[in-house]
Amino acid sequence: AHGDFLTLGAYLAYWLFSSARIDPVVSILIVAPLLFAVGAGVYKATVSRVLKAPLLNQLLLTFGIAMIIEEAINLIWTSRPRNVYVDYASASASIGSFRFGTYEFVYLAAAVGLLLLLRFFLKHTKLGKAAFAVGQNPKGAKIVGINVEMIYLLIFSISTGIVGIASGLVLPRMSIFPLVGAPFSLKSFCLAAMAGLGNLTGILWSGLVLGIGEELIKSIEGYSGWADIVFFGVLIAVITIRSYRRSYA
């Protein structure tokens, strides 16, 4: 449901811009803590109650949460696409005959910076090491005294808070509507499957390679519709090759 949390954060940033003229990037300071709190509330009210249920039940719950968010946004803001216009979002630079948008580098810097911070948190802080231990072996972590419930709550809340940061960054460059976050949810699942759960470096490189590939295909006149086909084609190929190598290792 994190793609729909992204949608919610983008609409909150849009509302702050339209009502109080708060810049979308500045609104991150408000939206990220709000989504952190929303994530904590959603976890305590719903997710925490199905942790011992089968994985399919957990997935169905998250899809239900996503649908609730989508319908709530539709009721409040309607399905009409919304836009925010800020000058810096359309800024560009050129090297020789090659022209490119400069705001995309903000995306890149934010993604790399957040991943580095997450890596530092997981590897070099007590809470991060506890979270890593819970991810590897929840029962073992509980035996050695780690508060597993608290770690689950913290990580879920941090993840929705990070989505709040992303929502303020993407708003200036995209139209938003109730279903705008769905592709992000799908592709995040794909990146996790491609790189492996918990492999932050692998997720970074997978995201960069697939993202650059998508944009290159979109830049070819008449072939923009092939971008998603190539994305999922590469994903299928990687998973198939990995499974083949493991079965014959």
Topology:
Layout: H1 2-20, H2 28-45, H3 55-77, E1 92-95, E2 98-101, H4 103-124, H5 126-136, H6 138-143, H7 148-170, H8 182-195, H9 200-218, H10 227-247
Antiparallel strand pairs: 1-2
Helix pairs in contact: 1-2, 1-3, 1-7, 1-8, 2-7, 4-5, 4-7, 5-7, 8-9, 8-10, 9-10
Approximate strand percentage: under 5%
State Rg.
19 Å
Content-based structural category: mainly alpha
Task: Catalogue the unreliable spans.
Answer: none
**What's the β-strand tally?**
2
Shape: globular
Structure overview:
It is a single chain. The protein contains 10 helices and 2 strands; from the N terminus they run H-H-H-E-E-H-H-H-H-H-H-H. The chain is mainly alpha-helical. The chain has 2 domains: 2-87 and 121-178, no CATH class; 181-249, no CATH class. Strand 1 (92-95) and strand 2 (98-101) form a beta hairpin. Helix 1 (2-20) runs parallel beside helix 3 (55-77), helix 8 (182-195) packs across helix 9 (200-218) and helix 9 (200-218) runs antiparallel to helix 10 (227-247). The protein is globular, with a radius of gyration of 19 Å.
Highlighted features:
single chain; mainly alpha; two-stranded antiparallel ribbon
Provide a brief overview of the structure.
This protein is mainly alpha-helical and 249 residues long.
